[in-house]
C-alpha cells in the first residue's frame, strides 16, 4: 500500500504564492520520480513539474521561472513552490510518484482569483 497525502492548496490572488506538499508513505522503497500534475475544468491532466531521485527537474513551459519543485528524500516528500500565480494556474493539482508504477494523490484545489 502506498499513500500520498497532499496539502497546501487554497485560494490566492493573482501574483500571490502557494506551496504544495505531498508526503508519501507505505511500501514505497526508493522513489525514482516525484512530481505534480494539474487538471483544469474541461481540460486534460498535464504535467506541471517533476524531479528525479538524482535531482533532475522538468517543468512545463507555462510555469518555468514561476514554480520550483523540490524533494526531501529522507521524508519522501515533494514540494511545489508556486509564485507569481495567474488565473490560468487554477486547477486541481495532483501529486504523482513513480516507483515500479505510478501512484496518484487525491488532488488539492488551487484557485487564483481576485
Summary tags:
55% strand; four-stranded antiparallel beta sheet; mainly beta; seven-stranded mixed beta sheet; 114 residues
Detailed description of the structure:
It is a single chain. By secondary structure, this protein is mainly β. It has strands at residues 2-7, 10-12, 18-26, 33-39, 46-52, 57-59, 67-72, 77-82, 91-98, 102-104, 108-112. Strands 2, 4, 5, 6, 9, 10 and 11 form a seven-stranded mixed sheet that branches. A four-stranded antiparallel sheet has the order 1-3-8-7, with no helix packed on it. A hairpin with a 3-residue loop joins strand 9 and strand 10. It is globular and about 40 Å long. It starts with a strand and ends with a strand. The relative contact order is 0.32. The mean pLDDT is 96.
Mean pLDDT: 96
Largest sheet: 7 strands, mixed
Oligomer: single chain
Shape: globular
Structural class comes to: mainly beta
Proportion in helices: under 10%
Number of helices: 0
Our measurement of the CA-to-CA distance between the termini, rounded to an integer number of angstroms, reads: 40 Å
Strand content: over 45%
Order of helices and strands: EEEEEEEEEEE
Amino acid at each position: 500500500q502506498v499513500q500520498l497525502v497532499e496539502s497546501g492548496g487554497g485560494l490566492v490572488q493573482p501574483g500571490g504564492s502557494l506551496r504544495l506538499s505531498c508526503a508519501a508513505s507505505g511500501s514505497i522503497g526508493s522513489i525514482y520520480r516525484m512530481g505534480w500534475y494539474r487538471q483544469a475544468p474541461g481540460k486534460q491532466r498535464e504535467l506541471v513539474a517533476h524531479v528525479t531521485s538524482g535531482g533532475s527537474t522538468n517543468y512545463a513551459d507555462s510555469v518555468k521561472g514561476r514554480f520550483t519543485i523540490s524533494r526531501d528524500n529522507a521524508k519522501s516528500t515533494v514540494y511545489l513552490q508556486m509564485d507569481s500565480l495567474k488565473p490560468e494556474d487554477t486547477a486541481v493539482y495532483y501529486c504523482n510518484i513513480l516507483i515500479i508504477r505510478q501512484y496518484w494523490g487525491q488532488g488539492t484545489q488551487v484557485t487564483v482569483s481576485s
